[in-house]
Amino acid sequence: MTATTGEDEDGTGPATRPASGEHPPTRRDRPYTLLGPDGRPYLSETPGTLAGHRRGRLYGRLDCPSARRAIAAGGYVRHRVFFADEPAAIAAGYRPCAVCLPAAYRRWKASSRFPASASEETVVTPSRTPFTATAAAGSGRGRSPLIRGAEATAYGPLPVPAPHTGAEVAALVGLLAAQRPRVRTVVLGHSRDAASRAAAEAFAGAFAEAWSERADPEHREAREGSGGDAVLAVVDWPERAASWLRAARRFTAPAPDAWVVAAAPLGWAQLARRLAQSTDWDPARTFGFASLAEPRAIALAGPDVLDGVRGAAAGGGTWAVRGGWLTTDPAGPLLRRRPKGPGSEEGVRYRP
């Protein structure tokens, strides 16, 4: 008989200590659970060389001081994962830890400031960036991240959301379907204008339909664990609020696989500031409608705040925020032409 003490630091799953009179289990009796390049867990006879945080989408050394502090404080372990090597972590969509892998982090940060491919159109956001997550952390958590009137006025009136399109909804659902690890549950957020509300309702229906049609065992298990709901919560917010803290907490409380947003740019920029300062929200797991692809809103929120957010355009293409750059791909991530070769036909396939 054994007693559970938590998770091993080397990826063996729940750690156990022997009860009185028993011999401790040997390593070969317990295979290691690692994440592969496709983001799926698998059993290994050898331990991982790197650890990661599933929600933060970052990886680092097994002895990372930041991770050890978080574990000692009673957190982190539930979302900890392990990798065989660095290429596996990168392929799974994780980025280097800034604390224990500073050189790798600097290289990653530098590379993320440029478009991913030459086919993408790049839009540079305005140079004024009055707020960033780094600035907020440096000034102390007591400082309010509210956008002041003078800041908003400096960028001029922001556009109101346009009605969504069917291609936009389909592209957004496709973006989520292409993610690894798989996105099975989302929290849906929207502002209170009619266009954003309608877009959120359209996405909820399309995502729930796609979600219910999946039949793989892991998906069935996730569906049962969430009570059968693909959308864990729907959160709305006004364009102006006293502190935005309540909306931010409601938005992050269910701990979904991803967040989806349909909103007016100014309100979203304000909420994103609060999310960055007061919650463990991850912009890299956030997807939005075309209304969020507004350079001035990105500048208002701060490029560090929205870095990693992706979304769909009205015509079915996609956009992404990378290090303060807004990049767009008219073809979208779902469709890519496969070159015609000997004995094959030109076709279209999903981009991984």
Summarize the structure.
The protein is α/β, with parallel strands linked by helices. 32% of the residues lie in helices and 22% in strands.
Notes on the structure:
The protein is an alpha/beta fold and 352 residues long. It has two domains: 2-111, no CATH class; 121-336, Response regulator (Rossmann fold). The protein has helices spanning 65-72, 86-91, 102-111, 133-139, 149-154, 166-177, 194-213, 217-225, 245-252, 265-278, 295-301, 303-306; strands at 2-7, 14-18, 32-35, 41-44, 50-53, 58-61, 80-83, 95-96, 121-124, 186-191, 231-237, 258-262, 286-288, 310-312, 318-322, 325-329, 336-338, 347-349. It has an eight-stranded mixed beta sheet with strand order 9-16-15-14-13-12-10-11, sandwiched between helices. Helix 6 packs across helix 7 (194-213) and helix 10 runs parallel beside helix 11 (295-301). It is globular and about 60 Å long. Residues 1-7, 12-27, 113-143, 219-227 and 333-352 have low confidence and may be disordered.
